[in-house]
From TrEMBL:
Major place of residence: membrane
Gene (UniProt): chrA
Membrane-spanning intervals of the chain: 73-97, 109-129, 141-171, 191-212, 224-242, 289-314, 326-352, 372-389
Protein name: Chromate efflux transporter
Record keywords, A-Z: Cell membrane, Membrane, Transmembrane, Transmembrane helix
Subcellular location: Cell membrane
Family affiliation: Belongs to the chromate ion transporter (CHR) (TC 2.A.51) family.
Species assigned in the record: Leptospira bouyouniensis
Length: 390
């Protein structure tokens, strides 16, 4: 029963989570923390902070971790399947039928999707800020983090800022003993160690197998696994790595690569699902559908192995008083990272006119004060955007 609940909830999010990884975390917070109450706000912030340290798509990793805590390893798997399936199917179909599709004339509703993401992210930042930044010290950490990342934004700097915020938390913040705590996943440390070992083994062994065996499948699996294992900073950061793997080798033409990238930004779900499109349109994949599945699994496998491997150790660490004080600072910094992301890329890619801003504040009103479901607000904003700009 829990597996079904996890799958249906993840599938719903996979069908309605527009706006990229930052917006996904906002949708997740609304669904898993506010509505389902499967995880506390502090435990959720801990997960987001952890996934900022791990390579791979942060939003998908958070979903896997919540599925893992709810229904074990199979819960993590069905959570990933549910969240990824809609976007993967859309991208595979788009790739297989690219010559028959034309999305160039649909810029109005595509723009509406970007606009509503601004309202979704703003609402999530407000909600997380109230809970995780209740005093002037943590608000200061949030603002300084945001300001720093607005001046110099990089995945490496994000990790550095989280580390510094944790150190500040240890020495200057007080851990409240009554702070609510929900175990994320106790797990088994031996199993965790085996998963981490398997992650490293594949990372080292696949390039060797690629040279020994003249197999297209191994070449594809190695390229996409390595991209998923080495990228920090979310879905958009993986695109240059994938482009370097598939375009110079002649696997995918650059115009097809860019067309798929543009389309993947207009659909719900994780941007890493773009890997399924590349497998579908590749000129040397086994066949369209098989190549799509192979590339999709290879890109997400490192994230799955790391989440299952790290969480058993993470649960013990986060209950330690020193770690909990560090997490107070890190959680405040996470809000700052989201606040910086609210401006760029979320705001800068969507709000270009007073009409855009009007749509944002109406969407925020419906979400925050009228408490309408996010999927309904997405549909309403897209329709209004289409009517206004048509």
């Amino acid at each position: 029963m829990k597996l079904i609940q996890v799958f249906i909830t993840a599938l719903k999010l996979g069908c309605t989570s527009f706006g990229g990884p930052i917006a996904h975390l906002s949708y997740f917070h609304d669904e898993y923390v506010t509505k389902k109450k499967w995880i506390s706000a502090h435990a959720y912030a801990d997960l987001v902070a952890l996934c900022q340290f791990l390579p791979g798509p942060a939003s998908s990793q958070v979903g896997m971790a919540i599925g893992l805590s709810r229904a074990g390893i199979f819960g993590a798997i069905v959570s990933w399947i549910g969240f990824t399936l809609p976007s993967a199917l859309i991208l595979i179909l788009f790739g297989l039928g690219l010559s028959h599709l034309d999305v160039s004339n649909h810029k109005h509703w595509l723009h509406g999707l970007k606009v509503v993401a601004v309202a979704v992210v703003a609402q999530a930042i407000l909600g997380m800020g109230k809970k995780l930044c209740p005093d002037k010290e943590r608000i200061t950490i949030t603002i300084l983090t945001s300001v720093l990342l607005l001046f110099i934004n990089s995945a490496l700097l994000q990790i550095l800022v989280l580390l510094v915020s944790g150190i500040i938390g240890i020495y200057f913040l007080k851990s409240n003993e009554e702070l609510p705590h929900e175990p994320i996943h106790k797990g088994n440390k031996l199993i965790g160690f085996l998963f981490i070992s398997f992650f490293l083994l594949l990372l080292l062994l696949l390039p060797v197998l690629r040279q020994v065996f003249n197999s297209t499948e191994i070449q594809y699996f190695d390229s996409f696994y390595r991209a998923g294992a080495l990228v920090f900073g979310g879905g958009h950061v993986v695109l240059p790595l994938l482009q370097a793997e598939v375009v110079p080798t002649g696997w995918v033409k650059n115009d097809l690569f860019m067309a798929g990238y543009g389309f993947s930004n207009a659909i719900p779900g994780p941007l890493f699902a773009f890997s399924s499109f590349l497998g579908a349109v590749s000129s040397v994949a086994p066949n369209g559908l098989l190549g799509a599945i192979l590339c999709l699994v290879a890109a997400f496998l490192p994230s799955f192995l790391l989440v299952v491997g790290v969480l058993p150790f993470w649960e013990q660490l986060r209950t330690n008083q020193v770690i909990r004080k560090a997490m107070l600072g890190i959680n405040a910094s996470v809000v700052g990272i989201l606040l910086a992301a609210l401006y760029t890329p979320v705001w800068t890619s969507a709000v270009f006119s007073p009409k855009d801003f009007a749509l944002v504040i109406v969407g925020f009103l419906l979400l925050e004060f009228w408490k309408l479901p996010s999927w309904l607000v997405v549909i309403a904003t897209v329709v209004i955007s289409f009517v206004i700009y048509l």
